[in-house]
Amino acid sequence: MPDATTSPVGSKNENGGPGRRHDRPALIGFVVDAKSEEVIQDGLIDLTSDQVDIRRGGIRAAIAAMQKQATPKVMIVDVSGEEQPLSALGDLANVVEPDVCVLVVGDIDHVDFYREVTRNMGASEYLAKPLTRDSVARHFGHFMGGAGRATPGAPKGGRAVSITGVRGGVGATTIAVNLAWNFGVWMRRHTVLLDPDIHLGAAAFLLNIQPSVGLRMALEAPDRIDALLAERAAQPAAERLHVLASEEKMSVAANHAQGAAASLAEALRRRYNFIVADVPFAPVALYHDLLDLVDQRVLVMEPTLAAVRDTVRLLALPKGAAQDQRPIVVLNRVGLPGGLARRQVEDALKMKVDVAIPDLPRQVGQAATMGEPAMGKSVAFRSGIRELTALVAGVQMIEAGSDPKDRAAATGKRQRIRLRRSAA
Length: 424
What we know:
CATH class of the largest domain: Alpha Beta
Radius of gyration: 22 Å
Structural class: alpha/beta
CATH topology of the largest domain: Rossmann fold
CATH superfamily of the largest domain: P-loop containing nucleotide triphosphate hydrolases
Shape: elongated
Strand order of the largest sheet: 8-9-7-10-6-11-12-13
Helix content: 25-40%
Order of helices and strands: EHEHEHEHEHEHEHHHEEHEHEHEHEHHH
Number of strands: 13
Number of domains: 2
CATH architecture of the largest domain: 3-Layer(aba) Sandwich
């Protein structure tokens, strides 16, 4: 296997297809009753050479397990007895990798429920109880190789968000780093922090991560990018947070190939629930492509007239194909000495800012010096990041073990995050 620090590209298997990760179990099932467990074991035993790991417990047990271990290629979950099975499937989608093939069993025998699970939720198949060995083999057997059915309109995998400073020095990289940390560490979602600036990017530096050359190599040869990119080029900052960045000499040219952004985004979406990209606004085709490809843009500004002017100009840019709403505006460093008041900024923009974060030079500076996230140093900063999290992900969640005050403050609309069907 090529060295992780030097090769971003995936190996090819003997059939010529993209290499696959070997740390993921082939199949794990969570079933609530002994009879169904026995039937599933019998129905699948002759259809796969891999171990059929069926555990006792329903979808809540699956959610708890997936918060602590690698996502299998195929997962069977039992929603029997669950008061809100669709909501539970949405919770499961938050803690598994986007390309997992999910097979659902339950006690609801209705065509509308089947359509909701397989079409809107993105599960690969649904079987109503009572199960038979024949029905399990016939309907689930096709997926034992880890391949789901490609379906028009199926969810496209992880959600991508870009963080862009309206001008240099406004704190966009700090916001990006902390947003990614919130997703990956505090919320335990599979997350990658992407810094496409291979010369001056500081995302890895702020987390005390040593960048690799993998990103540059991937951008130069996008036709070789596959789902193993994360394991070979991205560096782990935590169990569920990777950093994809390079730090090249100033004399090394950035030879970004055409289509590099699309290939990179596709590979990362298959691996991660959230992609946080620290994308500067500069006359670089790669940056423009990334801004068009993400699901949501975030603009970070400071309370100055120059930042207001540049924010207005960036808000006027055309939206990308996947972007349903205008960019989110984060007003950073509220209370900056000599800066504008929040009301003055909003009057100049002729709109309300979406998130406001106070000026915290001591806490943010200390965090940068130590290579730690600033949200661990300041409750006010953490509150702003969580408010931004709710806006970019459509979900408000507080991690287990967090401060009770943070739990009490958790409000907002909860939006279902769909499971993605893996390609056939």
